[in-house]
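Notes from the 1:1 (GR / supervisor)

We went over the backlog. Supervisor wanted to see one worked example end to end before approving the batch request, so GR pasted a single chain during the call. The sequence is below; no edits were made to it. Supervisor asked that the structure be written out right there so they could see what the output format looks like.
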Amino acid sequence: MSLALQQAAGLAGSTLIAKGHIKMKTNFESVRQILESQLKEAAPTQGLRESIRIHQVADPVDLTQQAAEREMAVHNLDRDSALMRRIRSAIERVNNRSYGVCLECEEDIAPKRLKAIPWAERCIQCQETADCQAGRNENGNFTHGLMQAA
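Structure output shown during the call:
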């Protein structure tokens, strides 16, 4: 995110200390505008959706090439859809004034993290834990798949 967007969002702003927690002053309207802008950028284009359409070809090499391109397009659509869901969720958190609070531990998310990833749902510690668990699940599924293949 550019410095101008960060300043417009008030993310470069100050903090308050209340009830033992650090609270970030956030201009929620500016954050919403930034998130909505990023949502528009993340929306898949018609061309990307068209690239997963199956075309009949006679050449096996062309068929393999198209299958690989389709696989990449599906991966890109999945990634873009996940990002759009996260951005929509962040907009909803802005609307209900819970933006900037970790969904796991309910502590404040660091302003630097929100500058880098405005749609962040978790503080860095909870995100690292979630990433480790996801990595273990993926490795477990991979190993399980290898065992079944053998």
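Supervisor's comment: The chain has one domain: 3-122.
Batch request approved.
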